[in-house]
Specification:
By secondary structure, the protein is of the alpha/beta class. The chain is built from ten helices and 13 strands. The chain has a nine-stranded mixed β-sheet, with helices on both faces.
Length: about 325
């Protein structure tokens, strides 16, 4: 199956606030908000939704094609992606513009405040053609350049390719009418619970109206797990056990990678969501969104400890050669 992952490529500047945001925000003064959070320092990591998802997919033995734009400072990020077996052939390079940057502050309750400089992401990427028949193409449309998201969805509808719509933190750049149009025909709508509520408010839809345009809805709820909603038939997928919670940043992107791995191998939706739940645990156990490492055997063992064994008749082959030897154990 041809797998394309679109969205952002960014440098993440991650900061920890040794307190709780809620203790410093006065509800009756929210209209004149003026707060400062003294942080414990800043660490720069590779990030962006497209890069994060593709990275975890590489650990799972997949080689998705990243569709995004990057800036003149992308060289070291590109080397990292190539070292992990990922091609940047569909990444458009923009001269004299920095790669996008996310400034993420997390408090002790794992609440996050993010500021995002789009940089090169303001420029559209060049959408690829695919070699496989359209019914063997899967596209993840994640938060990134608005023109790319719209054009990719339209191309998928026109050619009959399957796409997942994942608006994420891009919701603030859309109008309700635009969102109602772009989501049409999606195989799946995926978001966290806050984003789903915001999406429905912006579109003026009830969840039943969303189901008129998408096959199913997946909603993540952080440590409470995720919900697979097939036209009102809801299934709770528990969060997988985490060895040590270090940083929640990137857990949602890792979840999406596990989900996509299952879909590429044509597992049922519940299994795909469970694979997403397991993949997310690795990201939570590390600082940064592309610091975790695992091998296929370790992933299967962790899946089994949470949800029971995957059917051996359905399992894809494990990564081999350099890619297998380069991965650390679970």
């Amino acid at each position: 199956m041809d797998l394309f992952v679109s969205g952002s490529l960014a440098y993440d500047r991650i900061m920890d606030f040794p307190g709780h945001f809620a203790d410093h925000i006065l509800p009756d003064k929210i209209h004149v908000l003026n707060v400062c959070f003294n942080i414990n320092g800043v660490v720069e990591k590779f990030g962006g939704t497209a890069g994060n998802i593709a990275y975890t997919l590489s650990l799972l033995g997949e080689r998705p094609r990243i569709v995004a734009a990057a800036g003149s400072d992308f060289d070291r990020y590109e080397r990292w992606l190539v070292e992990n077996g990922l091609s940047c052939s569909h990444v458009r390079k923009i001269d004299d513009v920095p790669t996008a940057g996310a400034y993420i502050t997390t408090d002790l309750a794992d609440n996050q405040i993010t500021a995002f400089n789009p940089g090169a992401m303001l420029y559209p990427a060049e959408l690829p053609d695919w070699n496989a028949p359209s019914d063997d193409v899967l596209i993840h449309i994640g938060p990134g350049n608005k023109q790319d998201m719209t054009a990719f969805a339209e191309k998928a509808r026109r050619t009959g390719a399957s796409f997942i719509f994942d608006p994420g933190q891009s919701l603030n750049i859309w109008t309700g009418e635009e969102l109602r149009d772009v989501v049409r025909g999606a195989l799946c709508f995926i978001s966290n619970d806050y984003e789903l509520t915001h999406f429905l408010k912006m579109t003026g839809w009830k969840i039943q109206q969303l189901f008129e345009h998408v096959r199913l809805v997946i909603t993540t709820h952080g440590p409470e797990g995720s919900v697979l909603n097939v036209r009102g038939d809801k299934t709770l997928v528990p969060a997988s056990k985490v060895k040590d919670v270090v940083d929640p940043t990137g857990a949602g992107d890792a979840y999406r990678a596990g989900l996509l791995k299952g879909l590429v191998n044509r597992f049922d939706w519940l299994t795909c969501c469970q694979m997403g739940s397991v993949a997310a645990t690795y990201a939570v156990e590390c600082h940064g969104t592309q610091e975790h490492r695992f091998d296929w055997g370790g992933f299967l063992a962790r899946y089994e400890s949470n949800f029971g064994p995957l059917s051996p008749d359905l399992l894809p082959e494990a990564p081999t050669g350099r890619e297998a030897s380069a991965r650390g154990a679970a």
